[in-house]
Design brief:
This protein has a five-stranded antiparallel sheet. Helix content is about 30%, strand content about 25%. Strand 2 (about 80-85) and strand 3 (about 90) form a beta hairpin. Helix 1 packs antiparallel against helix 2 (about 15-20). The chain is globular. The chain has five helices and twelve strands.
């Protein structure tokens, strides 16, 4: 806990604490993404809410696609669904994130917000998806146009978009080019 606070305050020595506790691995890109993915999969299969973090959108897309394919193979997610922002398919069982505030989309007492985490619970023929907040405090029907433009798979995200996400564990891919 102290190391994360030190990092937040910009103290470079904090990274040494992570290394000393075996929290930092090194290697080529593909090996590191495999390690990151396996750690995420282990945590999620253990019932934890976990998030994969990468520095660029292409790596996030790769990780999200891999997670979805794995979950489809395990029978936890429907193989069919609708196109979402970035071209990914989302179906029943998928974890998704909304990327635009939309006061007109009610969720009980609230509305759909940028960064909200959801589980897809239904897909309609017209492309609308029915979602339930990951924390269980609301449901919404997201119209097809909103889904195509403002919904993304939620297994992985960029470091810049992690703000506001609440998870039990996070697995981050950091390279020399990560800012």
């Amino acid at each position: 806990r102290a190391a994360s606070v030190d990092l937040r305050h910009g103290r470079p020595d904090a990274a040494d604490t992570y290394t000393e506790h075996g929290r930092v691995q090194g290697g080529d890109r593909e090996s590191m993404l495999d390690l990151l993915y396996e750690a995420w999969r282990h945590d999620t299969r253990g019932g934890k809410r976990s998030l994969m973090i990468a520095g660029d959108s292409q790596t996030v897309l790769e990780l999200n696609s891999r997670a979805r394919a794995d979950r489809v193979g395990a029978g936890a997610v429907s193989p069919t669904g609708v196109a979402s922002a970035g071209g990914s398919v989302v179906g029943v069982g998928d974890s998704v994130v909304t990327r635009r505030n939309q006061r007109g989309l009610a969720t009980g007492r609230g509305w759909v917000k940028n960064g909200d985490q959801w589980t897809v619970v239904g897909v309609r023929r017209d492309g609308t998806i029915e979602v339930r907040r990951t924390n269980g405090t609301g449901r919404a029907a997201l119209p097809a146009a909103y889904v195509r433009q403002h919904v993304e798979l939620g297994y992985a995200t960029t470091a810049h978009r992690t703000q506001g996400r609440t998870v039990d564990t996070a697995q981050a891919f950091v390279s020399a080019t990560t800012l």
